[in-house]
Amino acid sequence: MASSSSYTSPCAACKVLRRKCIPGCIFAPYFPPEDPQKFANVHKIFGASNVTKLLNELLPRQREDAVNSLAYEAEARVRDPVYGCVGAISFLQKQVERLQKEVDSANSDLFQYACNEIQSSLPAPPGVNSVHPMGPTRQRHEGGGFYQTPSSFQFPYSTLPWNEDNSGGGGGGNN
């Protein structure tokens, strides 16, 4: 049977600071007793009095976001004392750049494959013995890859399938 007195465990901040947790404790809503390491990191990096001042200056609806940001930065600083969360952000930016280059390369390869498929599906025109065997040449440029045909290569048809308009008038021309 439960006792008549309601005992609540002190918040993590009061546990770490070894003080009595009062009912209006500013830390209690944000530092639950189940996660004392969260406050320990924040206290180690920013100091309890600085966090108290910060939370008192904020509107109650802004406090949770502030505490989450402080906790994230404090944990990052504990893991990496020099760079903190900036190191994690830099790592993620480099990873995004690397993945973007992979996507650009895959798109270039797909484009080359599509061009070769279209070119191989076209019948050879009369009087032309062979079409350029390699298809479009691959050229890398800053900001991604794309393909250009060599300037000496002329398409064997004046109307290309991808340049035709739906009105039947044929468009296109040499590239």
Automatic annotation (TrEMBL):
InterPro entries per UniProt: LOB (IPR004883)
Annotated region (Disordered), positions in chain: 124-145
Superkingdom field: Eukaryota
Signal sequence region: none
Transmembrane stretches, start-end: none
Any Pfam family the entry gives: LOB
Domain LOB, chain residue ranges per copy: 9-110
Family statement drawn from the similarity comment of this UniProt entry: Belongs to the LOB domain-containing protein family.
Protein name: Lateral organ boundaries (LOB) domain family protein
Source organism of this protein record: Actinidia rufa
